[in-house]
Write a structure and sequence with these properties.
Blueprint (H helix, E strand, L loop, with lengths): L1 E6 L2 E7 H6 L4 H6 L1 H19 L7 E7 L5 E9 L9 E7 L7 E6 L2 H10 L7 H5 E9 L2 E9 L6 H11 L1 E2 L3 H11 L1 E4 L3 H9 L2
Helix pairs in contact: 4-6, 4-8
Length: 206
């Protein structure tokens, strides 16, 4: 099991399928068997507090599961400040998925800071991963949002699924990307023309 702190209020947990098997669980049972789920999450939260100083005492929690990977189970845990009238911890679990686009993907970030947080999250991935994923990765801005454009995507890359699950945690993957790219080229402003993620890691993921 690997636990990564994405932001002050969000962590990512990566569990290999072998670990689930050792506990006689599958991705499906983890999301449907309430008692076992509560026990496992309790252990994960204890581990997260110890390893990455992620305390959830008195907080509400949102758990998002990514079941797109075949060999690992990835989910994020986001904590929220409790309401003034309750100190009870609340767990909310839901599945989250994304569509794989073979040639072009555009991801929308609400602001530049979120793009920087994304770069921090993928900072420790292999340095050549992004060159293998897409021939060109650019960053545009338009109407107060930022758009990461990945062209000529290699869906056979061994890091494809993990990268996309991480990307969908921070941004919104857009449909009809071909049409939207035309709008960006016409009306948007290019911020980083090439190797946008590498540049973001180098200068903004501090």
């Amino acid at each position: 099991m690997k636990i990564e702190k994405l932001t002050e209020n969000k962590i990512r947990v990566i569990i290999p399928s072998e670990e689930l098997g050792e506990n006689h669980l599958t991705v499906h049972s983890l999301m449907t068997r309430a008692i076992e789920t509560q026990e496992i999450f309790s252990e994960i939260l204890k581990k997260a507090e110890k390893e990455v100083d992620f305390s959830t005492e008195g907080c509400k929690l949102l758990i998002e599961a990514f079941s797109s990977l075949e060999d690992v189970f990835v989910f994020t845990i986001t904590r929220y400040l409790p309401d003034t009238d309750t100190k009870k911890k609340k767990l909310i679990a839901k599945r989250k998925s994304f569509h794989k686009i073979s040639d072009l993907t555009i991801c929308q970030f609400e602001n530049f800071d979120i793009f920087c947080e994304f770069c921090k999250s993928v900072k420790n991935l292999h340095k050549n991963i992004f060159a293998k994923l897409a021939k060109n990765i650019s960053l545009y801005t338009w109407k107060d949002s930022y758009y990461l454009v990945l062209r000529n995507i290699n869906t056979k890359s061994e890091d494809f699924n993990l990268f996309y699950s991480t990307l969908s945690e921070f941004g919104k993957l857009l449909s009809y990307s071909d049409h939207f790219e035309s709008k960006l080229l016409e009306h948007g402003k290019v911020i980083i023309k090439k190797n946008a993620i590498d540049v973001g890691i180098r200068f903004f993921a501090t």
